[in-house]
Design a protein that fits this description.
Layout: E1 4-9, H1 15-24, E2 29-33, E3 36-41, H2 43-52, E4 60-67, H3 71-79, E5 92-101, H4 108-127, E6 138-146, E7 149-155, H5 177-186, E8 194-197, H6 204-214, H7 235-247, E9 256-261, H8 264-277, E10 283-287, E11 301-304, H9 318-331, E12 336-341, H10 346-350, E13 356-362, E14 365-372, H11 382-388
Parallel strand pairs: 5-6, 8-9, 8-11, 9-10, 11-12
Antiparallel strand pairs: 1-3, 1-4, 2-3, 4-7, 6-7, 12-14, 13-14
Helix pairs in contact: 2-7, 3-4, 5-6
């Protein structure tokens, strides 16, 4: 069976989360670089990575790599790659995206143009023709150049993996689904623990948490570009992984996942999105301002993406907002709190230094993942567990 070198990009700063996810799927990691993790796998692994990985951006099959210090190197290196092993004669192929860091070849548009010409030349040789209809399936190519080392890969995913398919409606400043899932996995939260998002917006944190609790694979209900690459990955490969993942779903679980927002329209949108994700029964949404945040139980988790002044007029309100967050958190005895925010004065107004502060790049925006750890709950003995059951 054909083995591929599979490259999986992710948000900068979250490589460790993605690495663990891939290892949990049973694959050995070959490389961890800034913003991506690499491993080897077969056609089944490509399907499994697309359908199951929560923190990934997309799944790429590496075609090859080479050193390039000028455009001639780039042309010859690209032409030398075995394109005919991946792209059929009628395939539609183009360089979808090019990025270059600390390299002599750096113009994305020129990189795309030159690589396309080189691909055409190689395909002419391979298929003994001077013209391609390109009326078949799509084969988008992505290229990364780091310190003059070029990595060329085919994009098996299409739309980014953060697009699960459930969020048809969203708030003005939504957090990406894969980022929310990765941040949840950075915390000690488990499905039997309380989780509250007091700034839930369109519901991303609660929905991702509920999907994790119920064992719903994030890519189960969406399409991928490589589903049409039947000469590389069969329909049976996709069907088998989807069927396996459907068998993992368990909606008959007890959860305490809650989403609050001051805007009733946002709460209605969150409910609609949760229903589309199939987890509406696992989440309680409620219109409630941060000043009214409370909970009668201990050892819960606040996980949220509060406002941080990206919109005009918000910045003046931030000190009071974060002061209120700090006051409400202090009143929640024994709870933990995890906030992702671009507001660098958050700790000052919350009134407590975070136990951990992790820099996360949300696109080009630098944010901080403030982690305030509460005490661990006492371990329950077997008699207590039996009484609960």
């Amino acid at each position: 069976m054909q083995r591929y070198e599979i490259v999986v990009p992710c948000h900068f700063g979250l490589e460790s989360v993605l690495k663990k996810e891939i290892m949990d799927l049973g694959y050995d990691i070959t490389e961890v670089a800034d913003g991506r993790v690499t491993f080897f796998g077969d056609a089944d692994a490509v399907c499994r990575a697309n359908i199951c990985l929560r923190s990934a951006e997309r799944v790429l099959i590496k075609v090859g790599g080479f050193h390039a210090e000028n455009f001639e190197d780039l042309f010859q290196g690209t032409k030398a790659l075995p394109w005919e092993e991946y792209i059929p004669e009628n395939g539609k192929f183009w360089v979808k995206k090019a990025s270059s860091v600390k390299s002599k070849v750096y113009s994305p548009s020129d990189i795309q143009s030159i690589m396309k010409k080189a691909m055409v030349e190689k395909m002419k040789q391979s298929y003994h023709t001077n013209w391609f209809k390109e009326d078949g399936e799509s084969f988008p190519v992505r290229v990364f150049i780091m310190k003059d080392e070029v990595t060329v890969a085919l994009d098996t995913t299409g739309d980014s993996l953060h697009k699960r398919g459930y969020r048809r409606l969203e708030s003005k400043a939504p957090i990406a689904e894969n980022l929310a899932a990765a941040l949840l996995m950075l915390t000690p939260w488990k499905s039997d623990r309380i989780l509250v998002d007091p700034f839930c917006g369109s519901g991303t944190f609660p929905i991702e948490a509920a999907m994790m609790a119920a064992g719903i694979a994030p890519g189960l209900n969406r399409h991928f570009t490589a589903e049409s690459w039947s000469h590389l990955i069969t329909k049976q490969n996709w069907d088998d992984v989807r069927e396996e993942m459907r068998e993992e779903i368990n909606l008959d679980i007890d959860t305490d996942i809650q989403g609050y927002d001051i805007d009733p329209e946002m709460i209605e949108i969150a409910r609609i999105n949760a229903a589309k994700a199939g987890v509406e029964k696992l989440i309680h949404f409620q219109t409630r301002p941060i000043a009214e945040l409370s909970h009668r139980k201990k050892y819960g988790f606040i996980i949220s993406n509060p406002p941080y002044g990206e919109r005009i007029g918000e910045k003046d309100e931030l000190p009071q907002l974060y002061k209120t967050i700090g006051e409400r958190y202090k009143a929640l005895d024994s709870w933990s709190m995890y906030l992702i925010t671009g507001y660098d004065q958050a700790e000052k107004f919350i009134g407590r230094k975070a136990d951990k502060n992790r820099k996360i790049y949300n696109g080009m925006l630098k944010t901080y993942f403030y982690q305030f750890n509460g005490p661990k709950p006492p371990r329950r003995n077997n008699n207590e567990k039996r009484e609960e059951e």
